[in-house]
Design a protein that fits this description.
This protein is mainly alpha-helical. Helices cover 76% and strands 0% of the residues. The protein has one domain: Up-down Bundle (Growth Hormone, Chain: A).
């Protein structure tokens, strides 16, 4: 008997079903916790560096420690969820119990006890950031693997992750708008409230509650999809040998490496610019929190364009081509304002075109950026099919651990590199009071411009390694279905 349960002809047919829109929306509802954690994450460096006075290098070191722990945990949890067996399926128990550590860790991350030294604050950051990140590991990996299991259909898989990512973008914009306009709204003229401590109390408890109920909603509302999930007949014991063998097989797959490395580079780039762009908005462009909100507004049209554009592109082009083209567009558009400011080719701050010059290229970039992110998710699901054909094992958990780590890298590895970057350019602690030297201003623009562009071009290069196209995937599915049908026939006797 094979690892997967015997399957009837009807069950095999269901694997290629079109997933109902209701299911796609409920699956996507869990992105509210991601949006909340991400929104909080853009303030973490500012909070510990500019509010609490910890050096950016030490904050970066904390991010490094957390990222190492996370990098080890992600594939282990992925393999565990692949081999887990319960009446509630492989994925849902992990998702349910993740709600508690994420919510608790998020609250205390932004509410350290009074009187801690710089070292004490770094330890506090490591402990509760780790709790958030490991909690997310137990949620994100099973959640993403769940999305891959909903259907085997080549194009509808892209749609499932399309709904998920569009929902994340919409909810992220909503959460950030509340963050900038309500929690950190301007209370003192000429002072950005993100560098004041008061707002972090409100962010801590509202974010914690939001995370908790978002995770529970997604988990409980998708339990009705269990009949469509890949089933494991018996739980299998975890072994280091199995784990290393699984990783070795995946690392020998050029398509997996292409999707994996491209995703990591993209998310690390987002993480770096997510930190240093806020520093630039505050100290270079001298924006208020309300003006910074226009960064989120600029991303919104892409939400409505993403799915129709994705539908058109996926019908006419291969997934590799789509990712390369859209990532190239983003790599040049996002850093454009910072390049222009760096060479003094930028409107004055009192110009009516000032905000448009800052956020206009971002708007154009985000018309296509969601597409690349969605398509990489779909590529990972296709790789899971290829891996099953090669090994006779379903390993969505291990494969999507890459996506989980990639997402969290926006705060982890991205924050690490941003922290060391800020230290390298000599950015001042408590800059609101003591000011920023001119060389640090240029350094901020360099991090937001050339460094970001260079990273994304590396991501484009890695995507050229991807090998699975529409024809190849159809052949993989045909061979899988033949094997599954033969197994069902054999087990019937």
């Amino acid at each position: 008997m094979t690892e997967t349960e015997t399957e009837t002809g009807d069950e095999l047919k269901d694997r290629r079903r079109k997933v109902p829109i209701r299911t796609k929306l409920l699956f996507a509802s869990g992105t509210l916790q991601e949006a909340t954690v991400t929104a909080g994450g853009i303030t973490t460096m500012l909070f510990y560096n500019q509010v609490l006075g910890v050096s950016p290098a030490l904050v970066g070191m904390a991010f490094l420690i957390v990222s190492i722990l996370d990098a080890v945990a992600d594939p282990i949890v992925g393999l565990w969820s692949d081999r887990f067996h319960s009446r509630w399926g492989r994925r849902h128990p992990f998702m349910f119990f993740s709600a508690f550590p994420i919510a608790i860790g998020f609250y205390f991350l932004y509410q350290p006890v009074n009187g801690l030294s710089e070292t004490g604050l770094v330890i506090w950051l490591v402990v509760f950031f780790t709790m958030v990140r490991l909690g997310q590991t137990f949620y994100l990996i099973p959640h993403d693997a769940l999305g891959a299991e909903l259907t085997d259909d080549y194009e509808d898989r892209t749609s499932v992750f399309g709904y998920n990512n569009v929902a994340e973008m919409i909810l992220s914009t909503l959460v950030v708008s509340i963050l900038y306009y309500v929690i950190f709204g301007t209370v003192e003229e000429g002072t950005n409230s993100l560098v004041k401590e008061a707002g972090y109390v409100v962010m801590a408890w509202t974010g914690s509650v939001t995370i908790f109920f978002s995770v529970l909603l997604c988990t409980l509302s998708t339990l009705d999809q269990l009949p469509y999930m890949q089933k494991v007949e018996d739980a299998q014991n975890f072994s280091t040998r199995d784990f290393l063998a699984e990783i070795s097989l995946l690392l020998s797959n050029p398509s997996f490496l292409a999707a994996c490395l491209s995703l990591l580079i993209i998310m690390i780039g987002l993480g770096i610019i997510g930190v240093v762009a806020n520093y630039a908005y505050i100290y270079v462009y001298e924006l208020s929190t309300e003006q910074m909100f226009w960064a989120g507004v600029a991303k919104m049209p892409g939400v409505f364009v993403a799915l129709p554009l994705l539908y058109f592109l996926s019908k006419n082009f291969e997934k590799r081509e789509i990712v390369i083209a859209t990532t190239l567009a983003v790599s040049f558009l996002v850093p454009l304002p910072h390049f222009l400011m760096l060479i003094d080719f930028f409107p004055a701050s009192d110009s009516p075109y000032y905000l448009f010059a800052i956020f206009g290229p971002l708007l154009l970039a985000y018309l296509v950026f969601p597409v690349s992110y969605i398509v990489i998710d779909s590529q990972l699901a296709d790789i899971a099919d290829q891996h099953e054909l090669q090994t006779n094992c379903r390993s969505e958990g291990v494969i999507f651990s890459v996506r989980s780590f990639g997402k969290k890298s926006t705060q982890g590895v991205g924050g690490l590199l941003a922290g060391f970057g800020l230290e390298f350019i000599g950015f001042t602690d408590n800059a609101q009071e003591v000011g920023v030297p001119p060389e640090a201003i240029d350094g901020l623009l360099f991090l937001n411009g050339p460094v970001y562009l260079g990273l994304y071009l590396v991501g484009v290069y890695f995507m050229t390694w991807y090998r699975i196209d529409r024809k190849t995937h159809a052949e993989i599915l045909e061979r899988l279905e033949t094997r599954r049908g033969e197994a069902a026939t054999t087990d019937a006797f």
